[in-house]
UniProtKB/TrEMBL annotation:
<dbReference type="InterPro" id="IPR005828">
    <property type="entry name" value="MFS_sugar_transport-like"/>
</dbReference>
<feature type="domain" description="Major facilitator superfamily (MFS) profile">
    <location>
        <begin position="20"/>
        <end position="119"/>
    </location>
</feature>
<feature type="transmembrane region" description="Helical">
    <location>
        <begin position="12"/>
        <end position="33"/>
    </location>
</feature>
<dbReference type="Pfam" id="PF00083">
    <property type="entry name" value="Sugar_tr"/>
</dbReference>
<dbReference type="GO" id="GO:0032868">
    <property type="term" value="P:response to insulin"/>
</dbReference>
<dbReference type="InterPro" id="IPR045263">
    <property type="entry name" value="GLUT"/>
</dbReference>
<keyword id="KW-0472">Membrane</keyword>
<dbReference type="GO" id="GO:0016324">
    <property type="term" value="C:apical plasma membrane"/>
</dbReference>
<keyword id="KW-0812">Transmembrane</keyword>
<dbReference type="InterPro" id="IPR036259">
    <property type="entry name" value="MFS_trans_sf"/>
</dbReference>
<dbReference type="GO" id="GO:0070837">
    <property type="term" value="P:dehydroascorbic acid transport"/>
</dbReference>
<dbReference type="InterPro" id="IPR020846">
    <property type="entry name" value="MFS_dom"/>
</dbReference>
<dbReference type="GO" id="GO:0055056">
    <property type="term" value="F:D-glucose transmembrane transporter activity"/>
</dbReference>
<dbReference type="InterPro" id="IPR005829">
    <property type="entry name" value="Sugar_transporter_CS"/>
</dbReference>
<dbReference type="GO" id="GO:0046323">
    <property type="term" value="P:D-glucose import"/>
</dbReference>
<keyword id="KW-1133">Transmembrane helix</keyword>
<dbReference type="GO" id="GO:0016323">
    <property type="term" value="C:basolateral plasma membrane"/>
</dbReference>
Length: 119
């Protein structure tokens, strides 16, 4: 049987399409979660910024300056993720997938260990 030209193909939702859509949605949820993670310690970081300002300059930041420093810290968090995602290709080309993942995990464990050390 030959299909007529004005007959359109039937559009169906396939399991593969659902898989792709759900993967994209989960990626968006992870981005939102990670943005929330940086906002969780907001008050402690703002207090830290104030203390550093007092130690270095002898006076605390104004409310506007404190908000500006906080905004910069949150923006740098996202920019760092973008730079990291762009550098993955070069790392994989140079070290291979397995060694790149191992290197990233070593850096994550090292960072976690340094957060545990007292200042």
């Amino acid at each position: 049987m030959q299909r007529m030209e004005d007959e359109k193909p039937k559009k169906t939702i396939t399991p593969y399409l659902l898989y792709c859509v759900s993967t994209a949605v989960i990626g968006s949820l992870q981005f939102g979660y990670n943005t929330g993670v940086i906002n969780a310690p907001e008050q402690k970081l703002r207090l830290f910024f104030q203390n550093v300002s007092i130690e270095r300059y002898g006076e605390p930041f104004t409310a506007g300056a404190n908000t500006m420093v906080w905004s910069f810290a949150v923006a740098i968090f996202s920019v760092g993720g973008m730079i990291g995602s762009f550098s993955v290709g070069a790392m994989v080309d140079r070290f291979g997938r397995r060694k790149s993942m191992l290197l990233a995990n070593i850096l994550a464990v090292l960072g976690g260990g340094l957060m545990d050390c007292p200042a």
